[in-house]
Design a protein that fits this description.
Elements: E1 2-7, E2 10-15, H1 22-29, E3 48-51, E4 54-57, E5 70-72, E6 82-84, H2 85-93, H3 102-114, H4 121-127, H5 139-158, E7 163-165
Helix pairs in contact: 2-5
Bound molecules: FE2/S2 (inorganic) cluster (2 copies).
Length: 175
Protein backbone atom coordinates (compact mmCIF):
# COMPACT_ATOMS: atom_id res chain seq x y z
CA UNK A 1 0.00 0.00 0.00
CA UNK A 2 1.15 3.54 -0.67
CA UNK A 3 0.32 6.20 1.90
CA UNK A 4 0.79 9.78 0.78
CA UNK A 5 1.11 12.59 3.26
CA UNK A 6 3.10 15.71 3.99
CA UNK A 7 5.96 15.70 6.48
CA UNK A 8 7.54 19.01 7.44
CA UNK A 9 6.11 20.70 4.33
CA UNK A 10 7.45 17.99 2.00
CA UNK A 11 5.23 15.51 0.13
CA UNK A 12 6.13 11.96 1.10
CA UNK A 13 4.95 8.55 -0.04
CA UNK A 14 5.36 5.51 2.19
CA UNK A 15 5.16 2.08 0.60
CA UNK A 16 4.46 -0.82 2.91
CA UNK A 17 2.03 -2.19 5.46
CA UNK A 18 -0.50 0.46 6.54
CA UNK A 19 -0.36 -0.76 10.13
CA UNK A 20 3.28 0.17 10.57
CA UNK A 21 3.50 2.77 13.33
CA UNK A 22 3.97 6.37 12.27
CA UNK A 23 7.00 6.71 14.57
CA UNK A 24 8.71 3.83 12.76
CA UNK A 25 7.96 5.26 9.34
CA UNK A 26 9.32 8.65 10.39
CA UNK A 27 12.47 7.24 11.93
CA UNK A 28 13.24 4.19 9.81
CA UNK A 29 11.82 5.04 6.40
CA UNK A 30 12.32 8.80 6.36
CA UNK A 31 15.37 9.08 8.63
CA UNK A 32 13.68 11.62 10.94
CA UNK A 33 15.19 10.34 14.16
CA UNK A 34 14.41 13.45 16.22
CA UNK A 35 11.16 11.82 17.29
CA UNK A 36 11.94 9.49 20.20
CA UNK A 37 10.36 6.32 21.46
CA UNK A 38 10.02 6.02 25.22
CA UNK A 39 7.25 3.70 26.38
CA UNK A 40 5.77 2.73 23.02
CA UNK A 41 2.39 2.60 24.73
CA UNK A 42 1.03 6.12 24.62
CA UNK A 43 2.09 6.99 28.16
CA UNK A 44 5.19 9.19 27.94
CA UNK A 45 4.73 11.63 25.04
CA UNK A 46 8.35 11.30 23.87
CA UNK A 47 7.10 10.40 20.39
CA UNK A 48 4.79 13.43 20.04
CA UNK A 49 4.41 14.90 16.57
CA UNK A 50 1.77 17.23 15.21
CA UNK A 51 -0.84 15.80 12.87
CA UNK A 52 -2.82 18.57 11.23
CA UNK A 53 -1.61 20.82 14.01
CA UNK A 54 -2.61 18.60 16.94
CA UNK A 55 -0.11 16.85 19.21
CA UNK A 56 -0.38 13.07 18.86
CA UNK A 57 1.61 10.11 20.16
CA UNK A 58 3.11 8.73 16.97
CA UNK A 59 3.71 5.34 18.60
CA UNK A 60 -0.05 4.79 18.61
CA UNK A 61 -0.83 5.86 15.06
CA UNK A 62 -0.77 3.41 12.14
CA UNK A 63 0.68 5.21 9.15
CA UNK A 64 -2.41 4.38 7.11
CA UNK A 65 -4.32 6.86 9.27
CA UNK A 66 -2.29 9.86 8.16
CA UNK A 67 -3.12 9.63 4.46
CA UNK A 68 -3.37 13.22 3.17
CA UNK A 69 -2.49 14.66 6.58
CA UNK A 70 0.14 17.21 7.47
CA UNK A 71 2.69 15.80 9.91
CA UNK A 72 5.23 17.98 11.70
CA UNK A 73 8.21 16.63 13.59
CA UNK A 74 10.86 18.33 15.69
CA UNK A 75 13.02 18.58 12.56
CA UNK A 76 10.60 21.22 11.30
CA UNK A 77 11.75 23.64 14.01
CA UNK A 78 14.83 25.84 13.72
CA UNK A 79 18.46 25.01 13.07
CA UNK A 80 21.57 25.72 15.12
CA UNK A 81 22.00 28.92 13.14
CA UNK A 82 18.41 30.00 13.51
CA UNK A 83 16.68 28.59 16.52
CA UNK A 84 12.94 28.51 16.95
CA UNK A 85 11.69 30.63 19.82
CA UNK A 86 10.90 27.48 21.78
CA UNK A 87 14.32 25.95 21.22
CA UNK A 88 15.95 29.18 22.30
CA UNK A 89 13.82 29.30 25.44
CA UNK A 90 14.58 25.65 26.32
CA UNK A 91 18.27 26.31 25.83
CA UNK A 92 18.32 29.45 27.94
CA UNK A 93 16.27 27.89 30.75
CA UNK A 94 18.29 24.68 30.85
CA UNK A 95 15.13 22.72 30.13
CA UNK A 96 16.84 19.65 28.67
CA UNK A 97 19.02 17.29 30.64
CA UNK A 98 19.19 13.90 28.94
CA UNK A 99 17.03 15.45 26.22
CA UNK A 100 14.99 12.35 25.54
CA UNK A 101 11.67 14.02 26.27
CA UNK A 102 12.65 17.28 24.58
CA UNK A 103 11.40 16.69 21.02
CA UNK A 104 7.98 15.70 22.32
CA UNK A 105 7.92 18.61 24.79
CA UNK A 106 8.80 21.02 22.01
CA UNK A 107 6.09 19.76 19.69
CA UNK A 108 3.36 19.84 22.34
CA UNK A 109 4.52 23.31 23.38
CA UNK A 110 4.46 24.41 19.75
CA UNK A 111 0.80 23.43 19.51
CA UNK A 112 0.11 25.34 22.72
CA UNK A 113 1.74 28.49 21.43
CA UNK A 114 0.21 28.32 17.98
CA UNK A 115 -3.23 27.78 19.43
CA UNK A 116 -2.92 30.97 21.46
CA UNK A 117 -2.10 29.28 24.76
CA UNK A 118 -1.52 31.53 27.74
CA UNK A 119 1.64 32.10 29.78
CA UNK A 120 -0.04 30.79 32.93
CA UNK A 121 2.08 28.16 34.61
CA UNK A 122 -0.78 25.90 35.69
CA UNK A 123 -2.44 25.89 32.28
CA UNK A 124 0.84 25.00 30.60
CA UNK A 125 1.42 22.21 33.12
CA UNK A 126 -1.98 20.77 32.33
CA UNK A 127 -1.43 20.97 28.57
CA UNK A 128 1.95 19.25 28.90
CA UNK A 129 0.64 16.60 31.31
CA UNK A 130 0.95 13.87 28.66
CA UNK A 131 4.67 14.54 28.24
CA UNK A 132 6.78 12.95 30.94
CA UNK A 133 10.27 14.01 31.95
CA UNK A 134 12.42 11.96 34.31
CA UNK A 135 15.17 14.54 34.70
CA UNK A 136 14.17 18.15 35.08
CA UNK A 137 11.37 18.29 37.63
CA UNK A 138 9.38 20.18 34.95
CA UNK A 139 9.85 23.72 36.33
CA UNK A 140 12.55 24.63 33.82
CA UNK A 141 10.39 23.34 31.01
CA UNK A 142 7.38 25.33 32.19
CA UNK A 143 9.55 28.44 32.55
CA UNK A 144 10.79 27.98 29.00
CA UNK A 145 7.27 27.70 27.61
CA UNK A 146 6.16 30.77 29.58
CA UNK A 147 9.07 32.70 28.09
CA UNK A 148 8.39 31.38 24.61
CA UNK A 149 4.70 32.33 24.79
CA UNK A 150 5.68 35.88 25.73
CA UNK A 151 8.34 36.08 23.02
CA UNK A 152 5.97 34.68 20.43
CA UNK A 153 3.37 37.28 21.29
CA UNK A 154 5.94 40.06 21.11
CA UNK A 155 7.32 38.76 17.82
CA UNK A 156 3.84 38.50 16.40
CA UNK A 157 3.11 42.04 17.48
CA UNK A 158 6.27 43.19 15.78
CA UNK A 159 5.39 41.05 12.76
CA UNK A 160 8.85 39.65 12.75
CA UNK A 161 7.95 35.99 12.45
CA UNK A 162 8.76 33.11 14.74
CA UNK A 163 12.49 32.59 14.31
CA UNK A 164 15.25 34.31 16.21
CA UNK A 165 18.94 34.06 15.42
CA UNK A 166 21.18 32.42 18.02
CA UNK A 167 24.92 32.84 17.60
CA UNK A 168 26.05 30.69 20.52
CA UNK A 169 24.65 27.21 19.90
CA UNK A 170 26.69 24.54 18.19
CA UNK A 171 24.36 21.53 18.66
CA UNK A 172 20.91 21.54 17.21
CA UNK A 173 19.08 19.71 19.95
CA UNK A 174 19.64 17.21 22.64
CA UNK A 175 18.73 13.58 22.31
S1 LIG B 1 6.71 6.39 23.06
FE1 LIG B 1 4.80 7.09 22.41
S2 LIG B 1 3.83 7.76 24.23
FE2 LIG B 1 5.69 6.88 24.92
S1 LIG C 1 15.34 15.79 30.08
FE1 LIG C 1 15.59 13.67 30.47
S2 LIG C 1 13.58 12.91 30.34
FE2 LIG C 1 13.32 15.03 30.16
Amino acid sequence: MVVKFVVNSKKRAYKGPPFKRLIDVLRDDFGLTGTKEGCGEGECGACTVLIDGQPVNSCLVPVGQVENCKVETVESLGSSAELHILQKAFLEEGSAQCGFCTPGMLMTSLAWIRNGGSDKSQEIREYLAGNLCRCTGYQHIINAVIGAVREYKKAKARRKGLFLPSPRVSGERAG
